[in-house]
Specification:
Elements: H1 8-13, H2 16-36, H3 42-54, H4 59-69, H5 72-84, H6 97-133, E1 138-143, E2 146-152, H7 153-178, E3 180-181, H8 195-204, E4 208-209, H9 220-246, E5 254-255, H10 275-288, H11 291-296, H12 309-336, E6 338-339, H13 341-348, H14 357-366, H15 371-387, H16 395-402, H17 404-407, H18 412-417, H19 428-436
Parallel strand pairs: 3-4
Antiparallel strand pairs: 1-2, 5-6
Helix pairs in contact: 2-3, 2-6, 2-8, 4-5, 6-7, 6-12, 7-9, 7-19, 9-10, 9-12, 10-12, 14-15, 15-16
Length: about 450
């Protein structure tokens, strides 16, 4: 997590000040609940709330105490006692450190998910706007990087919209799964703390209760959360990779916005490089790097160990801060993306109509030719076009008309009719309706 790839709202979630404030709220809510059921004096709970709420926790002081205690929660509780006074003896009654640490992490991940969901919402707005703008901007579709059949640039963006809509649903589900509290004491049996305390803390923090916490919240929840972040990151990379390809000089169907005064190379003044989408590819790798450690954290020893702790202290902020930045960067990239329909048309025409080969194949089979013979007839003419150099305009249709086997089944007019590129776009409205709803047509 470095400033270059960080945004302040997400960074704030992981600051020591925020963490200690959440720790205090967990402890204070728990103490208030204990007061309600008669375990600690109500007056003491009120003092804890009043003094703690007004305090600014001294991060340097807590760090100083921890250098002696070698225990972060005890260091915090010691500092809290310095603020609260004698009533602090009622704090942390029946609780264990994991109750504070795990519940706090749940709050932080829940808040982080709120930001990430909002990020995806902004990206969806940008994708829908550009998809509608280019709904009928015809372009060549590629499989294996090779010209296939026509599609539209709008359909490409609609596909990305649908993918990020799924990612949004996944993130909402992951947020719900991680939004649990555990205030169950040592080994999770509630031996020294009433389950009603856990319910109170969970309610106040907007969480559910973990049914069986075994002293720690089971890490399958966290694994699912970080795995979801990894999927979102992969979707970012997928779209970024598409843009990188489309910006290649030989293709140049779309490119990143190049602002006045921007420089592409320290050596070559002509360069306009896809630096944003390349950056997104790298950031996606970093987010995905959190997934395997999160999966490995699931297998803790017995009721608890801390092999997960160092991992989560790093991947929690790193993965969420990085993904937040990446989603915002991708949104800006899409909003300002330069699109070149004329280049799309030029590239579509490069192979002299070969992208209509399937239509000819189907027409020949419907005219009575076996599929094997029809495929051979279409392919031998297509391969001649592949081997041509220079202008291929209309070459495929001309060869088909001159082929005796083909012309015996299809007239020149039949063949010409198969070279209407917009034939391939007749169901674009249906695709948009599926993605954006009935008003998208």
């Amino acid at each position: 997590m470095i400033p270059r790839y960080s945004r302040p709202d997400m960074v704030a979630i992981w600051s020591p000040e925020t963490r200690f404030r959440i720790w205090f709220e967990i402890e204070a809510h728990a103490t208030s609940a204990l007061a309600e059921i008669g375990v600690v004096p109500k007056e003491a709970a009120e003092v804890i709330w009043t003094k703690g709420n007004a305090a600014t926790f001294d991060v340097e002081r807590i760090d100083e105490i921890e250098r002696t205690t070698k225990h972060d929660v005890i260091a915090f509780l010691t500092h809290l006692a310095e603020i609260v006074g004698p009533e602090a003896r009622f704090v942390h009654q029946g609780m264990t450190s994991s109750d504070v640490l795990d519940t706090c992490l749940s709050v932080q991940l829940k808040r982080a998910a709120d930001i990430l969901i909002a990020d995806i919402d902004a990206l969806l707005v940008a994708l829908e706007k550009r998809a509608r703008e280019h709904k009928y901007t015809i372009t060549i579709g590629r499989s294996h990087g090779i010209h296939a059949e026509p599609t539209t640039f709008g359909v490409k963006l609609a596909e990305a919209y649908a993918e990020f809509s799924r990612n949004r649903a996944r993130l909402v589900a992951a947020q719900k799964e991680i939004s649990v509290a555990a205030i169950s004491g040592a080994v999770g049996t509630f031996a020294n703390i009433d389950p009603r305390v856990e319910a109170r803390v969970a309610e106040k923090l907007g969480l559910s209760v973990e049914p069986v916490s075994t002293q720690v919240i089971p890490r399958d929840r966290h694994a699912m959360f970080f795995a979801t972040l990894g999927v979102v990151a992969s979707s970012i990379e997928r779209l970024a990779t598409e843009i990188r390809h489309l910006q290649r000089t030989e293709v140049l169907e779309a490119e990143e916005y190049f602002s006045p005064g921007q420089k592409g190379s320290s050596a070559m003044p002509h360069k306009r490089n896809p630096v944003l989408s390349e950056n997104l590819t790298g950031l996606a790798r970093l987010v995905r790097s959190a997934v395997t450690p999160a999966l490995e954290d699931v297998a803790l020893w017995h009721e608890r160990d801390i092999s997960h702790s160092s991992v989560e202290r790093m991947i929690g902020p790193d993965a969420t801060v990085t993904l937040d930045f990446a989603l915002a960067r991708l949104t800006g990239l899409i909003e300002k993306l330069l699109v070149y329909p004329e280049n799309m048309r030029r590239n579509l025409d490069l192979l002299g109509g070969l992208h209509n080969s399937q239509r000819v194949l189907l027409a020949l089979t419907q005219a009575g030719m076996s599929r094997e013979d029809a495929y051979a007839a279409v392919q031998r003419n297509a391969m001649q076009v592949w081997q041509m150099r220079g202008d291929r305009t209309g070459a495929f249709a001309k060869l088909l008309k001159a082929d005796p086997e083909v012309s015996a089944k299809l007239s020149a007019g039949d063949i010409d009719a198969m070279f209407d590129d917009f034939y391939h776009l007749k169901h674009v409205d249906s695709i948009f309706e599926r993605v954006f709803g009935a008003d998208a047509a």
